[in-house]
UniProtKB/TrEMBL annotation:
Native organism: Staphylococcus caprae
Function, in words: Condenses 4-methyl-5-(beta-hydroxyethyl)thiazole monophosphate (THZ-P) and 2-methyl-4-amino-5-hydroxymethyl pyrimidine pyrophosphate (HMP-PP) to form thiamine monophosphate (TMP).
Domain Thiamine phosphate synthase/TenI: 9-194
Gene name, Swiss-Prot/TrEMBL: thiE
Protein name per Swiss-Prot or TrEMBL: Thiamine-phosphate synthase
EC primary class: transferase
Entry keyword annotation includes Magnesium: yes
Entry-linked PANTHER family: THIAMINE-PHOSPHATE PYROPHOSPHORYLASE, THIAMINE-PHOSPHATE SYNTHASE
NCBIfam families documented for this protein: thiE (TIGR00693)
EC number: 2.5.1.3
Catalytic activity: 2-[(2R,5Z)-2-carboxy-4-methylthiazol-5(2H)-ylidene]ethyl phosphate + 4-amino-2-methyl-5-(diphosphooxymethyl)pyrimidine + 2 H(+) = thiamine phosphate + CO2 + diphosphate; 4-methyl-5-(2-phosphooxyethyl)-thiazole + 4-amino-2-methyl-5-(diphosphooxymethyl)pyrimidine + H(+) = thiamine phosphate + diphosphate; 2-(2-carboxy-4-methylthiazol-5-yl)ethyl phosphate + 4-amino-2-methyl-5-(diphosphooxymethyl)pyrimidine + 2 H(+) = thiamine phosphate + CO2 + diphosphate
Length: 212
């Protein structure tokens, strides 16, 4: 079952986010050892794996997550998430509507991206466990990211959502995480801040210190 504490340090990563000389398995295992609370497999872009290669990698990474008892979420790919029995799915505003697949993800984690108040007002959260809000800051990890909304968007959404689980995303790093925590997010989701860190253990523990 989903627990909002699982959003504290939510690592998102695909092969496209890994620096040269490393593998995604190495990076994920270091992040898991350091204490990440949730992992999302997001395989995107021109170099992304597809088909059977993507499935086999997803199964490997899911197994790694199970070893550390950390939920394994698939980004966007509903068919893959169902096929490998992932712990959940995360979709964006332009992806498949939650109501189209929610029944098949009963007792799983469902996340939805929301960038602003307008998207919130047009979103049905009745079958969603958490929302990912952002981008907080400019981000190099997503080519299609919209304009940054900043931590103030979390405060605005809190007026409508009370204690509904919110994870902040986009451009978050060790130097700006404090303002996210102060805005009352349940946690942060990061890509390059962990995948390209020179010391993943130190980075993850630094992030965790703001949400314990």
């Amino acid at each position: 079952m989903f627990n909002p504490k699982q959003l504290q340090v939510y690592f998102i990563c695909g092969t496209q986010d890994i620096p040269e000389g490393r593998t995604i398995e190495q990076v994920l295992e270091e992040a898991l050892q350091a204490g990440i609370t949730l992992y999302q497999f997001r395989e995107k872009g021109p170099t992304a794996l597809k088909g059977e290669d993507k499935k086999q990698l997803a199964l490997k990474l899911k197994s790694l997550c199970q070893t550390y008892q950390v939920p394994f979420i698939v980004n966007d790919d509903v068919a893959l998430a169902k096929e490998i029995d992932a712990d959940g799915i995360h979709v964006g505003q332009d992806d498949e509507a939650v109501k189209a697949f929610a029944a098949e993800f009963e007792n799983k984690i469902i996340g939805l991206s929301i960038g602003n108040l307008d998207e919130y007002q047009h979103s049905d959260l009745s079958q969603v466990n958490y929302i990912g809000v952002g981008p907080m800051y400019a981000t190099p990890s997503k080519d299609d990211a919209s304009e940054p909304v900043g931590p103030s968007m979390i405060k605005k959404l809190r007026e409508y959502l009370d204690d509904f689980p919110i994870v902040a995303i986009g451009g978050i790093n060790e130097s700006n995480v404090a303002s996210i925590a102060e805005a009352d997010a349940d946690g942060i989701s990061v890509i390059s801040a962990i995948s390209r860190s020179d010391n993943i253990d130190k980075t993850v523990k630094h992030f965790l210190s703001y949400f314990k």
